[in-house]
Design goal:
6-stranded mixed β-sheet
């Protein structure tokens, strides 16, 4: 993720998280972090992730018992606090039955190469829980 962020700076970027869950469903194992899909829109204060190529990628992951787990994106040279748009999007994803991911993970990377910050949260039932905020 940090490599993609460094390459994109000063523009936002992002991708999806793919992996699986432990047997008792209490932990997610993030096994793959994608780069921004082709045709994604990058700006200084906005990122729109394209879905180009993701169905094929997720179908291949499914065959390996891996699944869509959530999203990651970068707030260049800024705070990792999620915006209203970030929160709204994650709630929408949690209710998308096609994704089969009722508790998506959101990772926000903030700052820059000399001072990275990470924010990790899980969304469920119109609420979110901050798991970790690292500075």
């Amino acid at each position: 993720m940090l490599l993609y962020c460094e390459r994109a700076n000063p523009y936002e970027t992002g991708g999806i998280l793919i992996g699986n869950y432990c047997l008792n469903q209490t932990a997610a194992n993030i096994l793959q972090i994608t780069e921004p899909p082709k045709n994604s829109k990058h700006a200084r204060c906005n990122f729109h992730r394209s879905s180009c190529g993701l169905k094929k990628l997720l179908d291949a992951a499914w065959d390996q018992d891996q699944f869509y787990l959530g999203e990651w994106h970068y707030h260049p040279n800024a705070s990792t606090n999620p915006s209203y748009t970030d929160i709204s999007q994650m709630i929408t994803l949690a209710h998308n039955s096609k994704l089969k991911c009722p508790e998506p993970i959101l990772i926000i990377v903030g700052g820059h190469s000399n001072n990275w910050e990470l924010y990790v949260s899980v969304f469920s039932n119109k609420r979110y829980t901050i798991l970790k905020q690292l500075k």
